[in-house]
Amino acid sequence: MPLRVHVDVVSAEEQIFSGEAEFAVFPGEAGELGIYPRHAPLLTRIRPGAVRLKIPDRDEFEMVYVSGGILEVQPTLITLLADTAIRAKDLDEAEAIKARKHAEEALRNRSADVSYASAEAELAQALAQLQTIKKLRKPH
Fold first, then answer.
1. Which of 26, 32, 67, 113 is deepest in the core (most CB within 10 A)?
2. pLDDT digits (tens, 9 = 90+) for 55-111
3. What total of structural domains would you count in the chain?
């Protein structure tokens, strides 16, 4: 029987995923983090992007979009406390494109009523959602 690790992905609103995985990939601040069972303990922040979970006996990855958060890794348990988490299949591509355009417009105009940092964060989240949708469509 292959080794497995329990993974919990939760946001402030709900628990998005709780179950066993053969391995998991998270969007770390310095690049993707691949976590296998028995990984050394780790506590780190993650950036907006796609979480990919290899579920036993399934060919396709379970994918979840997260807008950022904290990842805690223990040898037999991975916990992701996400700011926002959405199942990749539930992402709305039209909304993500609209959000990207809105953020790009705000960055171009730089009006006093729009903060540059919040426009940048909105753009990063929209781009991460679009990348997650693209990964979901691409065969693994």
1. 26
2. 999 988 889 989 889 999 999 999 999 988 888 777 666 776 676 777 777 767 766
3. 2
